[in-house]
């Protein structure tokens, strides 16, 4: 399974691509950090992020996308930018027809290090070890994106297999299904009438 992980952010958005199977070692494919200028208009920054993610999705052809779920932060400006960038990542994946799963930082930390309380240095160290990298990925946004991808390979792959065993499709996000996404698309084309 090839997974593209996204650590959302407006100024720096980490993107990491890995391949692997649940219970097996993952292999590094690539990692990037998408930058935008804080002086630019919000619409320009979000459009740049959308186009960059679309290019990476087309280039690397992942089977699914993992995005960090925004959690409560004290800085409202930061959380808003992170949420907007996360929404762009989810939308880019949906436009590419890919399933999306969102993970909280503590879920990713627990999957990668064994502790939901791990700090950035521990996360980066484990990502470096797990992917057998010669040097740690920099900046931390890249390491976080790779950790998200690893987490999804190990946890999301199991979720998809369980859903398939139950006869259901894997989710496109929390509480969403492929049929509800199709219904929304149909309503949009029909002026909101289902």
Structure description:
This protein has 194 residues and is of the alpha/beta class. The protein has a single domain, classed as 2-Layer Sandwich (Nucleotidyltransferase, domain 5), CATH 3.30.420. It has 6 helices and 5 strands; from the N terminus they run βββαβαβαααα. Strands 3-2-1-4-5 form a 5-stranded mixed β-sheet, sandwiched between helices. α1 crosses α2. The longest helix is centred in the last third of the chain and has 26 residues, at 140-165. The protein is globular and about 45 Å long. The model is unreliable at 170-194 (pLDDT under 50).
Summarize the structure.
This protein has helices at 42-60, 76-95, 105-113, 120-130, 140-165, 178-189; strands at residues 2-7, 12-19, 27-35, 64-68, 100-103. With 194 residues, the protein is of the alpha/beta class.
């Amino acid at each position: 399974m090839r997974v593209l992980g996204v650590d959302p952010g407006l100024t720096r958005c980490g993107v990491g691509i890995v391949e692997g199977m649940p219970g097996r070692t993952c292999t590094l494919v690539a990692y990037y950090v998408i930058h935008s200028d804080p002086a630019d208009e919000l619409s320009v920054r979000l459009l740049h992020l959308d186009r960059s993610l679309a290019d990476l999705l087309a280039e690397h052809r992942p089977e699914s996308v993992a995005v960090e779920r925004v959690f409560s932060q004290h800085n409202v400006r930061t959380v808003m930018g992170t949420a907007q960038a996360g929404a762009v990542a989810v939308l880019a994946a949906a436009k590419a027809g890919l399933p999306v799963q969102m993970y909280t930082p503590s879920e990713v930390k627990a999957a990668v290090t064994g502790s939901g309380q791990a700090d950035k240095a521990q996360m980066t160290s484990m990502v470096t070890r797990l992917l057998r990298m010669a040097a740690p990925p920099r900046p931390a946004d890249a390491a976080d994106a790779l950790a998200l991808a690893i987490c999804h390979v190990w946890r999301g792959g199991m979720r998809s297999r369980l859903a398939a065993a139950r006869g259901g499709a894997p989710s496109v996000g929390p509480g969403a299904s492929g049929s509800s996404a199709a219904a929304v698309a149909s309503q949009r084309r029909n002026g909101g009438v289902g």
